[in-house]
């Protein structure tokens, strides 16, 4: 919320990523930025990489958008990243609206 209050809407996603990374550091939040993940199919790891914006606390996917409105494709992306990362929570945050919008997903864990 601090990032959105300071910057408002209208920037690209990368600007918000950079600012949020600084905020994570300031708050002492452990994170990995753009950590590549690989899906599996029939027991085989696929070559394609999935790259969420952040993984925080080693168990929370944080996916950022800077769009007019979130749609089901954005939601599916966040949920699928959480499934591939085998974590229980995905946060989808949209900086592209006048008011900060976020959605939480609990896709379940395979652990």
SSE blueprint:
Elements lengths: L1 H6 L5 H15 L3 E3 L3 E5 L2 E7 L3 E3 L3 E6 L6 H14 L3 E6 L6 E5 L6
Parallel strand pairs: 5-6
Antiparallel strand pairs: 1-4, 2-3, 4-5, 6-7
Stretches where pLDDT falls below 50 for ≥5 residues? Answer: none
Order of helices and strands: HHEEEEEHEE
Q: How much is the average pLDDT?
A: 94
Fraction of residues in helices?
Answer: 25-40%
Shape: globular
Write down the domain tally: 1
Radius of gyration: 14 Å
CATH-defined fold name: Lambda Exonuclease, Chain A
What is the number of helical segments per DSSP (H or I, 4+ residues)? 3
CATH class wording = Alpha Beta
Reading side by side through the largest sheet, how are the strands ordered?
1-4-5-6-7
Q: What portion of residues belong to β-strands? A: 25-35%
Summarize the biggest pleated sheet.
Answer: 5 strands, mixed
Number of strands: 7
CATH architecture: Alpha-Beta Complex
Structure, described:
The chain has one domain: Lambda Exonuclease, Chain A, CATH 3.90.320.10. The radius of gyration is 14 Å and the shape is globular. The model has no long low-confidence stretch (mean pLDDT 94). With 111 residues, the protein is α+β, with helices and mostly antiparallel strands. The protein has helices spanning 2-7, 13-27, 72-85; strands spanning 31-33, 37-41, 44-50, 54-56, 60-65, 89-94, 101-105. It has three helices and seven strands. The protein is 32% helix and 32% strand. The longest helix has 15 residues, at 13-27.
């Amino acid at each position: 919320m601090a990032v959105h209050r300071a910057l408002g809407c209208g920037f690209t996603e990368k600007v918000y990523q950079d600012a949020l990374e600084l905020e994570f550091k300031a708050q002492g939040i452990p994170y990995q930025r753009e950590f590549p993940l690989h899906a599996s199919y029939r027991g085989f790891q696929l070559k394609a990489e999935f790259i969420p914006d952040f993984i925080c606390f080693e168990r929370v996917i944080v996916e950022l958008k800077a769009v007019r409105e979130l749609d089901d494709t954005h939601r599916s992306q966040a949920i699928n990243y959480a499934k591939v990362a085998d974590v229980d929570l995905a946060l989808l945050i949209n900086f592209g609206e006048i008011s900060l919008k976020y959605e939480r997903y609990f896709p379940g864990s395979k652990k």
